[in-house]
Amino acid sequence: MSQRLAAQFTRPAVRVLLLLLVVALTATGCGRNNKDKVAESRPVEAIYAEAHADMTHGNWSGAEKQFQALIAQYPYGPYTEQAQMEIAYAQYKSGKMDEAVSSIDRFLRTYPTQRNVPYMYYLRGLANASRDTVFLQKVWRLDSSRRDLSTPLQGYSDFNTVSERYPNSRYAEDARRRMIELRNTFARHEMDTALYYLNRGAYIAAATRAKYILETYPQSKYQYDAVAVLAEAYTRLDNKTLADDARRVLQMNDPQHPWLSGNWPDYPMTIRKLNPFAGEKSALDNEDARRQ
Questions:
Q1: CA quadruple 105, 107, 109, 111: dihedral positive or negative?
Q2: 58: left (phi over 0), alpha (psi -120 to 50) or beta
């Protein structure tokens, strides 16, 4: 009898508890949905202002998320166009170069005639120019000319687009300056290769690379080093006519070049290569110090 009564009282109690649990869960869900609706119903100006505040304080990740939320809620309009540009810039500032380039490419496809197109090409140049920088290069200051140059070459092309297509834009002058810096980087890359061949007695290969520098990167920072390589290579090959021509060009244009006094190229000591913390060094480093 007592067991039957207990069962009768237990069943309703369980039903009441289950009912209360369902009500509680429903209320929680409604509260969350209401909050989501409030968030989704924010005016575009408010979202943009909050994202811009994140940008001002250097919170690039937060700004990127806010601008993405703006685009999701308002996929069309001037705020959306600006948000796409801001996303690319936030990604660039936070070091996400691949994502920045993808965002810029998407913008250029969507808005090919938008008034900020020159800026987007310029920003893509900045991202591509440093796209393959790795942590160890930042820490140990490894020479950028010894990296894979495919993406810096793309950056050079981006800056050239700004310079040629939009010569009157506010970004054209800096784009041209950065093109000069990149051209010097490319020339140094080729010079290191030429000196590598020269050091190993591959004089024809060294002369070929030096001529390539003079033809491809005229007026670069390393043009007279290339002439010095020619002079040294032709001297080693016993080609007196070409060696004398190179020497004469060097004497006329860079009379203080150390090759003329027999002190170039100045290769780094072999023992330095055994120290992984010493950073990379080439025969050009002393030459750079001389120029300064």
A1: negative
A2: left
Q: What is the pTM of this model?
A: 0.77
**Backbone dihedral region for residue 266 (phi beyond 0: left; psi -120 to 50: alpha; all else: beta):** beta
DSSP 39-85: HHT--HHHHHHHHHHHHHTT-HHHHHHHHHHHHHH--SSHHHHHHHH
Q: Are 258 and 266 in contact (CB under 8 A)?
A: yes
For residue 43, give both structure tokens.
């005016």
Q: Cα-flanking dihedrals φ and ψ of residue 154, to 5°?
A: -65, -40
> Is residue 78 within 8 Å of residue 45, measured between CB atoms?
no
CA dihedral 222, 224, 229, 234 (to 10 degrees): 150
pLDDT in tens, 173-199: 999 999 999 999 999 999 999 999 999
Which pair of tokens denotes residue 151? 């993406």
The pLDDT tens digits for 193-241 are: 999 999 999 999 999 999 999 999 999 999 999 999 999 999 999 999 9
Amino acid residing at 246: A
Compute the distance between CA of residue 277 and CA of residue 60 in angstroms, rounded to an integer.
32
Distance between CA atoms of 153 and 150, rounded to whole angstroms? 5
Neighbours of 169 (CB within 10 A): 18
Q: Mention every residue, 6+ apart, whose C-beta is less than 8 A from residue 145.
A: 185, 186, 188, 189, 192
Q: Which two tokens stand for residue 105?
A: 């490419």
Q: What is the amino acid identity at position 11?
A: R
Cα separation values, 19 from 9, 16, 25, 45, Å: 16, 5, 10, 43
Give CA angle at 106 (105, 108), nearest 5°.
65
Spatial CA neighbour of 160 closest among 189, 194, 186, 137: 186
With both helix axes pointing from N to C terminus, report the angle between 150-165 and 172-199 in degrees, rounded to the nearest 10.
Answer: 150
> What SS3 string covers 131-154?
CCCCHHHHHHCCCHHHCCCHHHHH
